[in-house]
Amino acid sequence: MEGLLTRCRALAACSRQLSGSIPRRFHHCAPGRGKRLVLSRMFQPQNLREDQVPSLEGGSGDLTCKSQRLMLQVGLIHPASPGCYHLLPYTVRALEKLVRVIDQEMRAIGGQKVSMPSLSPAELWRATNRWDLMGKELLRLRDRHGKEYCLGPTHEEAVTALVASQKTLSYKQLPFLLYQVTRKFRDEPRPRFGLLRGREFYMKDMYTFDSSPEAARQTYGLVCDAYSSLFARLGLPCVKVQAGVGSIGGTMSHEFQLPADVGEDQFAVCPSCSFSANVETLNLSQTNCPACQGPLTETKGIEVGHTFYLGTKYSSVFNAQFTNVHGKPSLAEMGCYGLGVTRILAAAIEVLSTEYCLRWPGLLAPYQVCLIPPKKGSKEEVATELAGHLYDHITEAVPQLRGEVLLDDRTHLTIGNRLKDANKFGYPFVIIAGKRALEAPAHYEVWCQNTGEVVFLTKEGVVGLLSQVQVV
Ligand code: ATP
Ligand code: MG
């Protein structure tokens, strides 16, 4: 138990939870029992049999990776069209948590949140020549007046035009770090792997405006550090690697890669120094580290983030200027920074889950606790009321867990069957009111699914353990 508590405390410290949890409201009321979240009233379609999993991208019907299979099986996502998914309630809860963590990290470095339209006028894209350069990836459409648009795959053009429209900017106001979390649209040639590569997905994109190249490089470092801090809080071992600039352009770029077998990128790391790079940036024949000449190791990764130092590539096109210290107009030095929000969620599930059971980064789990009362008609049935009291006690004594505790009221099922489901869903804590709930004092079986430990605790012990849980 002591070991468990120490580990939980260490986890708590590691995820560096910021203060001020948002008050939440219960979604469902169990009749006559006050406000409790009950599983039987959740919209949570389960397709636990693999042959019942709905068909997938491109209609191939092939299950292509673990996260996609698990997310379909437990009803986290439902296919709508190739590369497009309905995000179901558990997923939306997890994504909202992810966005809260991202907001904390972006605001900590001075980020200001905006929201730009997805409908993006063609003339912006013609100005940078990307209307042609983006080719078939750009989803294009016309309005009733024949005016052309695309559905934004990224927003360099839009944000630079926005800043350029502010005619009285002074160097004293810079840097600006503007970011948003919005849906992006890309007509990917091969959408696949569920949320890992969609045609419509959530991205966090930040755009920075500085008054000098030196200041812009400093800002670039600041955003990269915020990304590293975000992935550390999520417990994801991401590697920052040198990258190519692709169609976005600029002069310096890094990717944040999460090592995984299904990753579509290949990156090289040098075990003896800190060098790491996407293999696309290396010569084909290069097997040694350019920094220390040691042998390089290659790993597959999922690109979860990408940063670019843009210089004046976009500000010069749209004339995004500010008045410098000498009172003269000067072009803003820019950077742009993307995080694949839906991709991060799927990638986390991909690397943390077992073949059969979902696992979440603790901070992102849709619900922290699943409480399982005894089966109806079983010997332990008298403990049903205790389980209800425990539910109420937890949500009173541990305020951050309000709205985070689910009661599996499907009491026509055995405890074992419900435990199996809870294990599959990956709630960080599963609490069972079984035989030992009849002891004096009552003991509850607690499964700590992210550490694999199982302990028996009294009501006070349960509260002690759960009060360590970080909720964002
Ligand atoms: P990729 O090389 O995987 O196609 P990209 O380099 O084209 O990605 P960026 O333009 O750098 O992507 O976009 C920023 C981030 O958005 C990426 O790092 C990734 O996490 C995410 N992302 C890009 N494309 C997709 C997609 N089709 N589905 C989900 N997330 C995506
Ligand atoms: Mg990229």
UniProtKB/TrEMBL annotation:
GO CC annotations on file: mitochondrial matrix; mitochondrion
Pfam families in the cross-refs: HGTP_anticodon, tRNA-synt_2b
SUPFAM superfamilies: Class II aaRS ABD-related, Class II aaRS and biotin synthetases
Aminoacyl-transfer RNA synthetases class-II family profile domain residues: 96-361
Reactions it catalyzes: tRNA(Pro) + L-proline + ATP = L-prolyl-tRNA(Pro) + AMP + diphosphate
Task of the protein: Mitochondrial aminoacyl-tRNA synthetase that catalyzes the specific attachment of the proline amino acid (aa) to the homologous transfer RNA (tRNA), further participating in protein synthesis. The reaction occurs in a two steps: proline is first activated by ATP to form Pro-AMP and then transferred to the acceptor end of tRNA(Pro).
Protein name (record): Probable proline--tRNA ligase, mitochondrial
Native source organism of the sequence: Equus caballus
